[in-house]
From TrEMBL:
The lineage of its organism: Eukaryota, Viridiplantae, Streptophyta, Embryophyta, Tracheophyta. This is Disease resistance protein CC-NBS-LRR class family. GO terms for molecular function: ADP binding. Residues 515-768 form the Disease resistance R13L4/SHOC-2-like LRR domain. Residues 162-302 form the NB-ARC domain. Keywords: Plant defense, Repeat. GO terms for biological process: defense response to other organism.
Amino acid sequence: MDISFRLFSERLRRVLAGEEVTLPDAAKLPIQNLHAETEIVTSWLSEFQDDISCLLLQKMGHREIKNPDLTTVMDEINCFTYESEKVIDTFINNISEQKSQSSCSEDIFDALQGLQSRITDIKQRMQQLKHMDSEIIDRIKTFEAEAGISSSSKSRDTVGLDDRMEELLDLLIEGPPQLSVVAILDSIGLDKAAFAGEAYNSSYVKHYFDCHAWVPGTYPYDADQMLDIVIKFLMPSSRLSEIMDKNYEMKKIILHEYLMTKRYLIVIDDVWNIEVCDIIREILPDNQNRSRVLITLTEIKMVTSFQLEDRENIRLDLVPTGGPLRATYKGWPFLILYHGSISFEENIEEAVEIPLVFRYFKCCSLPFCLKLCFLYLSVFPAHLEISTRQLYQLWIAEGFIPDNSEATAENYLEQLIKGGFVEANKRKAGGTINTCSIPGRWRPMLFTVPSDVEFIFSPFVDGKSGKKAKRLNAVERWDDFVCLDDYDSQLHSFLCCSPESRHIDPIDWEKICGMFKLLRVLDLGSLVLIQYPSGIENLFLLRYLKLNIPSLKSLPSSLLSNLLNLYTLDMPFSYIDHTADEFWKMNKLRHLNFGSITLPAHPGKYCGSLENLNFISPLHPCCCTEDILGRLPNLQNLRIQGDLSYDQSLLSKSLCRLSCLESLKLANESKMPRLSKIVLAEYLFPHSLTHLSFSNTDLMDDPMPTLEKLPLLQVLKLKQNSYSGGKLTCGSDGFPNLKVLHLKSMLWLGEWTIGIGAMPKLECLIINPCAYLKKMPEQLWGIKSLNKFDCWWPQPELRQKLREFEDKEQCGIQLYPCGI
């Protein structure tokens, strides 16, 4: 309930620091005074954090409010925040529109005087407040004690659950002969996926069941997709190419025939809806041999709703905690292993509410910036992987990261992962997080709390008015845009992260630009604009802009000269061959992502360097001149894509100007690749490089003598057709810091040698494939840090040597595809 106010206080600090606009002198003092008052109130809010949390939970549960005075004060604070944001937004927007600063200053001075008086009154009311009864907090602590955990314990831990694991294994291995479902349900933050995974990987299960499959519970459930996943897990790889070309019914018949003589276990993680059971029954045979399906349930309401919503088909026999809940679903045995301490018979309402309360209090224990970042995850579809690159840019644009640094944003995400609030799905070579997701135990809270505290309004979640919410999340349904008139014109963020690629109606676009002139974030995801949208240049406060405009070929001056507050410009489906000179005035720009972009030559006058720009992907090589790259002094990530051979004279000598460059990807797109001549020895790479990737460069000379001299290089990827030679030679003591090496599709590579002391820190080696490579360098096995070696389609001679290698497990040698 206090999130918006505390975020507003932080915003005032940014305004005073000049991050949003250059303030006229007359406006500085009243804003300083207002900021001082908000800091005092923020300090008081911290002291009453538990009371505020209890008040929110009472409102969410439609229960009696125990402290009406606190309710009144919080309502006044929220109204004050809403009005104050409107004043500051309007003032800054007027300055951005280059209206008279003197008249703007007079207007804001009068408005701020009124706000000053209001917050003084609020402070006086606050001094008379007393803490409410901490009954609910005591109940949470008692609940934790009875459950045998502490609030500081990691929710992902499964330590100390040996008895429950034994019970789960009994349910899987014993019981009725017919195909049965065993469900794991939790009320106190157990990592159900880890718990199920421990059973799935246990020796008991592996010896008892003939085959196994692990299926993610992607919602909405799709029978065809789920069937494909099960087939890929269970069927022999030699038959997959033949089977996957069949239609749904034929694939189902093939799977049934294959499983009829086998006892199988299918795990479906993170189930949100009972309809998944109908799909399971349809695609899996019941061969009366104790085959099992193990599912993890996301929330208790799933169980309690069975009895209420489907009385004819579901019979739920509630039993006290200590044994499994027994049910049938359309005659199908349904056993629920419940981890918690609440008896369903006596406290059915508490059984539903306690998990949400418990998780909310854990969320409240986070530092404020981390709590903002976590709650903001509700803008993403719950079951999809989240791109960390996009996430960091959104956090920064929203003002959640104090120093606007991606490194700080990444640190925040790592802390959320360490606390069990977020899961890391994929990591890039080198360890940085590539995608993440929301664990199932947190989704019910993220589904409700951000809307209830008016932090983010999601019309598909909450049918109530979102008039005071500053962020609109139209993530699921494009139809929500029909009701644009119902939303607050002071909106800060408009997000539509749906993967749908529909075309936007021009009328809807006009509404967006006409109504929401104070937007800071506009993300329309995959929704398609037919042409460059008029009116966008009037959104002066935009920090983050993501649009899908395939027809766009040039960036007009009106866009670049007006949107000077942009941090992120993301148009991944636009291929820009002309950019106006005004690009060089966008000194706040940090992140530039297109299908391809060509930058203009620097105009010389009235423009400086783009010192904040740290990411460009991909840049056309024709604009990689010393003059252009030299004016991007803090660029850290760069992808260059185009005819590298044609522009080699420019590119090879210009890269050294990027003294802060850490990641470089070179992708050649020559129309006549075999005739192109890319001479790597001519390239002057900056010594700051830690990640380097080549693709389709068709190098004739061995690249290792040049690249092994880069002192900080940690990841090197020589991808498809990057080198057409037959020999790689790594000299002695070369690659002193290399940790990851990918050699991909080097069709003619037959010999590879490594000198003494080379690659001393190598951890991961991936060869995929190198058809003529018959042996590995002997020095490779002397690298003690090597713990992952994936080799795809090795030659028979090499395959046999790797199978017989004594330290196979220590080096992490894996041959692919499995079974060769």
